[in-house]
Design goal:
homodimer
Chain lengths: 297, 297
């Protein structure tokens, strides 16, 4: 069977079943990052790889520094979503022999800019020939205090669901300029008990069910509450993907405090309560008439 | 300027100049692996990425398990070349939607086999769509005792140069079935002071000058001493690449002991002294009449 018919989640589930896994692997395939460390270690290591492919994640005509920025920031966003901070990156680039040196330098300019901004050391990688589209793969390590490591799987029924920023519109260019919510995630895990968190890479419609499923919960959200990028319909906010905002759960007892402190700390970045985790299987409460809800069907 | 005109080493040199690098980065871009750790840490971490591209490193018709085996073993070979052992791998695969699930399962069968053989935990990765050839990138962490960490750069003039196994013939299929010299490298660094080591991935003609240059030395080798795979000419032994044998330097005082103990420990794997590191710039002693020597010109 072709993998296009199966869908990404099903493909990954089959491939990663029963992978060889040693001790000290706290979390293997299936979350934003892998987590490595001893049960009693104060700090755990995070491992992440992420790739961008020409024609899929960026167009050939885009400015190279924006492509480099995006490539590294995607991985930084996953480290942030675990509550951690990034450390060391390795860059693998496969390109045609006909690529201009200036293009590659542009890619690296974007990579360097993102690395400086988020405290990443670029410690190596590989440059290979490819007869096809350009391919950039980032391997990134990070660290997180054991007590602040957040997975997708700790949410409980009754927890409130929040998203940062505004969703949708990535295709109009936002996907090349987004800022990973590293500072925000560190602040969240430093000031609150965050039971479940992830970054929104495939769109809320695809990602929220993953968080709910990992937490053994269903969810209820109201379409009209979803914070939208100016000019975007709900369908775009749900389905465009590549928002790289944070989606997280919070215990009801923390909600008031969180909302007040957030406004004081990040006055320019909206924080929106979009719904709750519920008991039982995944379902969406149909308060909204927006067609975007079909994504959840 | 097109990168094909510049060549890989020049491209990498330009891209990696002045990369952002934090403290505890013992070794950044330029060796087989990056090395991370405190000056006094007993164990350092090794980081490596390596990719294989359809049409460059393997043909579409190859059996998928052999491709998976090769993809992971290439990275294991780099960890071995630093004197370390591999720990955790992340697998990034970009393929067309039309790829069959059976093909991907075959790739993972090869990856799993290599992981079990060399004690690697596969802890995650990513599967992405690609409109072009299949692309498999491996990110691999490893560890090495600080005292046994071997770079390319510690050789001194007068050191003897050795290679394991036989060189050449990778294109006839060996490149899909090779066994990384992990046990051999661990034994070497456990029993001898190895000043410089690397794995042979681009062929002796390309790789030996890199080791010599990193060590600030020249070299002399005798073409007729180079151990060749059965049926291979010297040119192939020098230039085919993808041998994944070890090339290393040894102090003259250790040579006799090394050769004796090696024969007892690894009776089936040849260990060959091919020449020496010399003072000054890179040059090759022209003892051989084989045309392969043109590679060094």
């Amino acid at each position: 069977m072709k993998i296009g018919t199966l869908g990404e989640d099903a493909v990954v589930a089959v491939l990663t079943r029963g992978l060889p896994c040693g001790k000290n692997v706290r979390l293997g395939a299936g979350d934003d990052c892998a987590v490595i460390g001893g049960v009693r270690d104060r700090v755990w290591q995070l491992l992440k790889t992420d790739c961008v492919v020409e024609g899929v994640h960026f167009l050939a005509k885009e400015k190279p520094p924006r492509i480099g920025w995006k490539a590294l920031c995607r991985a930084v966003s996953d480290i942030a979503a675990m509550g951690g901070w990034p450390k060391h990156a390795l860059i693998t680039i496969a390109v045609s022999r006909d690529v201009k040196m200036a293009w590659l330098r542009g890619i690296y300019a974007g990579l360097r800019k993102a690395a400086r901004r988020f405290g990443v050391s670029i410690v190596g990688g590989e440059t290979s020939r490819s007869p096809g589209p350009a391919f950039i793969s980032i391997a990134l390590t990070g660290e997180v205090e054991r007590a602040r490591c957040v997975t997708r799987g700790g949410g409980r029924a009754g927890d409130f669901l929040f998203v940062t920023g505004r969703l949708g519109g990535s295709r109009a260019g936002k996907h090349l300029d987004f800022v990973p919510r590293l500072a925000e995630a560190r602040w969240l895990t430093g000031n609150f008990q965050i039971p479940a968190m992830m970054d929104l890479s495939d769109g809320l419609a695809a990602d929220l069910p993953r968080l709910a499923k990992a937490s053994g919960c269903g969810f209820e959200i109201a379409g009209d509450k979803i914070p939208r990028t100016r000019g975007c319909m709900v369908a775009q906010a749900l389905g465009d993907g590549e928002d790289f905002e944070l989606l997280f759960a919070v215990s009801p007892s923390d909600v008031q405090s969180l909302e007040g402190k957030w406004r004081a700390k990040f006055p320019k970045l909206p924080l929106t309560q979009i719904g709750t985790l519920t008991r039982g299987a995944v379902r969406a409460k149909r308060k909204s008439k927006h067609r975007g809800y079909d994504h959840f069907a």
